[in-house]
Amino acid sequence: MKALSKPKPVTIYEVARHAGVSIATVSRALRDSTLVTEATRARVRAAVEELNFTPNQLGRSLAEGRHAANGIVFPDLVGPYYAEVVLGYEEVASELGRSVLILATSGRRDATAAVLDLARRVDGMAIIANAVPDDVVTDIAATGLPVVLLARQPVRGIDTIRTRNDRTAAELAAHLAAHGHRRITFLGDPDRSSDVAGRLAGLRTGLRAAGLPEPAAVRCALDVAAGEAAAIELLAGSDRPDAVVCANDEVALGARLAAEAAGLRVPEDLAVTGWDDVLAARFTGLTTVRQPMRDLGAVSARWLHHRITERTTDGTPVPARRRVLPTRLVVRRSCGCPAS
Amino acid sequence: MKALSKPKPVTIYEVARHAGVSIATVSRALRDSTLVTEATRARVRAAVEELNFTPNQLGRSLAEGRHAANGIVFPDLVGPYYAEVVLGYEEVASELGRSVLILATSGRRDATAAVLDLARRVDGMAIIANAVPDDVVTDIAATGLPVVLLARQPVRGIDTIRTRNDRTAAELAAHLAAHGHRRITFLGDPDRSSDVAGRLAGLRTGLRAAGLPEPAAVRCALDVAAGEAAAIELLAGSDRPDAVVCANDEVALGARLAAEAAGLRVPEDLAVTGWDDVLAARFTGLTTVRQPMRDLGAVSARWLHHRITERTTDGTPVPARRRVLPTRLVVRRSCGCPAS
DNA sequence: TTGAAAGCGATACCAA
DNA sequence: TTGGTATCGCTTTCAA
């Protein structure tokens, strides 16, 4: 063992010298097939083996003018929601030979700077929900960097993929109405998420169609504690609802805790529904809505790849794409249905 | 608008020309403070503004000889476990000014190649559990690339961080023994995860200490379906246990389903415990063990950063570090304790 | 089929 | 304090 301090990186030059060829030939041998004799290719391979050469990705990328990497930006990874999206994204991206850089923006003051930094390291990026403000999104897209938006209000000229909120929420409303629930309250903040806004809008539509009064809406964050706190206050009020439709499952679970604490039975005294169908929903009989989160990530990775590769063959600007993935009402006990 | 086809990247050269200085000065103005007049700095800044210049990260990294990026490798992101680890890792890494590349190896044939590719794109990487085989780990570490192992059997010469399995599992065993459970079976595969192996070992130790017989061990994967299937078979057998200790919460939830299907009450007829304390555990009264997953990621990011930065000042090779983070038994109903 | 050499876009050393 | 220029490691014409 020599000095461990500097593991002396092996470059293409050494390989070339070792194989008795030029660096150009080494480069070719390592990628093209046609332009190199099988004999020389073998010599190069041998040298590569012997020297344990591994091409420097930076040099390569710089020369090729591409990163061969994609980014994905999300608020955080709390709860299974975003994690699933990221997983679907990663799977497809790496199938397509691209590395994946992640960035969580929640709770950091320099989110914008971080996203701009990310933009310098990738050939395209997906942005989930409200991870970054609109103007940053448009700024980045204006750079020419391919961007795809997920679970977020579309921005002009940018590809967007969402999951169905309105229609399924309306369906949920009809279902609750059929159960005889009349005084329905929505728990969640429509101003902080376009998904939540869509769910509330759908709920409104559905209730109206059922001839029921407008639902009240109580703002709260998307976690158990927030849902519990909001529900405690709500249930202590004079005009207690007979059903709460929650923006997601965590909130619903929190609402349930509040109901228990208030001595109310679910669903007899208070129906509760969620959204996302997390594991806990299944095991607590929570009626909810399932969405194809993995697909959301997968599709976005695929779209991004198209954008990235198409942009080399510059033709007419391909118009922005939109897609809404289907969601499905999952009926369990908490809405008033008999235990299955 | 001109041709949108080639957004013509703005380089440091244009900025230099625009500001009437050399590229060296531009570079300085954008980083050092001392070596540039405030006046010239202003001119450079103006040019940067006007041209909307953004430095190319590849050029920069190549020149600096570093990626300013870290990798993290995990089997998958299913369940909250790895997601939390990744989140903790990302948070610290980006605080330290490093980007984060992720790689999921589960269910891909070319896992090794993918990890090696990742190794070319980062200054260091964390590897979780059995995401990649030992020999690959040592190969990468031999490269000189800083590596830290998480929730995994230590490898000679490599930093490793784990969470406490044995001791807490023994504690759990004692708790179950105190409940009067005597015939205890373990559900999980100790051969596929050092965490699982540690939990089983701890269970053994604890039961022995309590004067109870050796636990049976039934192998199964770490998801609900696997747990359910394994438990169905187990409970159908002639020598039914009175408690099953599961390798994680998902398995425990599956076991519970099996118990219900078999007409057994939990915990009266069968006690069930899990590991991880996922959300569903809390809401189903599952006795389990909580681990600091976020910390696991955070600490590893910090260690990695040390390794990466220390290696410039080459001195004596710092010996590999080891750390075991504490875990905590969370007692709920499923072990036999009264509902709290 | 192969080699020489010109980039790719920054950093940083050496002079001035 | 500034400019000129070598350098990082690779890809890719252009000739031979």
TrEMBL record, chains A, B:
InterPro entries noted in UniProt = HTH_LacI (IPR000843), LacI/GalR-like_sensor (IPR046335), Lambda_DNA-bd_dom_sf (IPR010982), Peripla_BP_I (IPR028082)
Determine if Transcription is one of this entry's keywords. Answer: yes
Q: Which GO terms describe its molecular function?
A: DNA binding
UniProt-listed Gene3D superfamilies: 3.40.50.2300, lambda repressor-like DNA-binding domains (1.10.260.40)
Residue ranges of domain HTH lacI-type in the record? 10-64
State the organism of origin: Plantactinospora solaniradicis
- Which of UniProt's keywords are assigned here? DNA-binding, Repressor, Transcription, Transcription regulation
Q: What is this protein called?
A: LacI family DNA-binding transcriptional regulator
